[in-house]
Amino acid sequence: MPQHVRVGTRASVLALTQTGHVADALADLADLTVETVRVRTEGDRVSAPLASLGGTGVFVTALRDALLEERCDVAVHSLKDLPTADADGLTVAAVPVRQDPRDALCARDGLTLATLPPGAKVGTGSPRRAAQLRAQRPDLAVVDIRGNVDTRLRRVRGAVPVEGAAPAPTATPAVSTTSGSPVGDLDAVVLAAAGLARLGRLDAATELFAPDVLLPAPGQGALAVEVRAADAIGDAPLAQALRALDDVPTRRAVVAERAVLARLEAGCAAPIGAWGVLGADGTLTLDATVVAVDGARSLRRRTSGPVRSDDDARALGRALAEELLDAGAADLAPLGTSS
Questions:
Q1: Is the per-residue pLDDT at 218 higher than 90?
Q2: For residues 264 and 335, is the Cβ–Cβ distance under 8 A?
Q3: Which of 100, 118, 277, 305 is the most exposed place for a label (fewest CB within 10 A)?
Q4: How close are the terminal C-alpha atoms of the chain, in Å?
Q5: How many Cα atoms within 13 Å fall on the side-chain side of residue 254?
């Protein structure tokens, strides 16, 4: 008889899509029947800026509680939302193959970062993206926004709505929808390319940022599949499926990136970027940056080295963070506030 597995997820369209991919993969990899369980999180209930709520970890706590209370057996997180501290009794048992980790500009009229007019309004809920945008274009008006992908895209003037969504105006901004969210009040928004791709909305992107322009968040584009620690070991179908789903190059890269974040003692919403790539020869190349909130100053460092285990990747990330600290990173960003 197949093992029955309940997969916990947030109820947003993106979360349900990501969870659906993982659930389908698990069912294909072992003798499992899979049920999706929706879990409402604090981040879904509150509309305040993420930084004021303690970072994107607010999306994770409720899912972890559901695991520990055995209301679900698997939780699927966007890995960039996952706090660097381990949760007692839980483990990230699989990190599937990573999607494109880059940030994407979704702008009116096909504009790019270079061609946005002076004073253009650009929306993002990420202090990291905001700081790097200000570093590149200090003349822009960076606006803090919340909401799901479609809500954010509708705020771009002249944006093409998804099927069934209210149309955005082409000229007059700040029109309210029935939910109270403005429509068409921005010139652009910045979103994760991976999220757009998973939703089939990558056509909304007018520019994909090279990492020397906007360095992604640690773990961006990757998913974390978390379970109770005991369920990740042994020969049960779920444990077998998790081992098969785990992608070693992705895991090693994100372990290194998150080690930078952990050593800097920075929350997952801090203005810190990191991106690792594991080569075929086992060498991991890792870039990291710390940016002042106003974008006026920044530090960036790169390192590389052989990585044959998660511990090697973690050590590489910590060493790069030490370089940043030695260069004065603590003077640029609010460190010592890890989530």
A1: yes
A2: yes
A3: 118
A4: 41
A5: 28
Residues 6+ apart with CB under 8 A from 164: none
Which residues are CB-contacts of 57 (< 8 A; sequence separation ≥ 6)?
A: 81, 82, 83, 267, 268, 339
What CA–CA distance (Å, rounded) separates 75 from 64? 7
Q: What is the pLDDT of residue 175?
A: 46
d(CA 264, CA 318): 8
Cα distance between residue 193 and residue 185, in whole Å: 22
How far, in Å, CA of 47 to CA of 38, rounded?
A: 19
Report the distance separating Cα 39 and Cα 237, nearest Å: 24
The predicted pLDDT at position 165 comes to: 42
The arithmetic mean of pLDDT across residues 38-58, rounded, is 56
Handedness of CA 155, 156, 161, 166 (dihedral sign): positive
Q: What residues are labeled active site?
A: 80-81, 128-129, 146, 152, 268
Amino acid symbol at 204: A
Distance between CA atoms of residues 53 and 160, nearest Å: 31
Say which range, 9-23, 78-92, 325-339, has the weakest mean pLDDT.
325-339
For residue 234, which amino acid is it?
Answer: G
Span 268-296, pLDDT tens digits: 667 999 999 999 999 999 999 999 999 99
| Count of CB atoms situated within 10 Å of the CB of 216 | 25
Model pTM? 0.88
Higher pLDDT pick, 157 / 175: 157
Task: Give the CA diameter of the chain.
Answer: 63
One DSSP character per residue, 135-194 reads HH-TTSEEEE--S-HHHHHHTBTTPPPPTTSPPPPSS---EE-TTS-EES-BSEEEEEHH
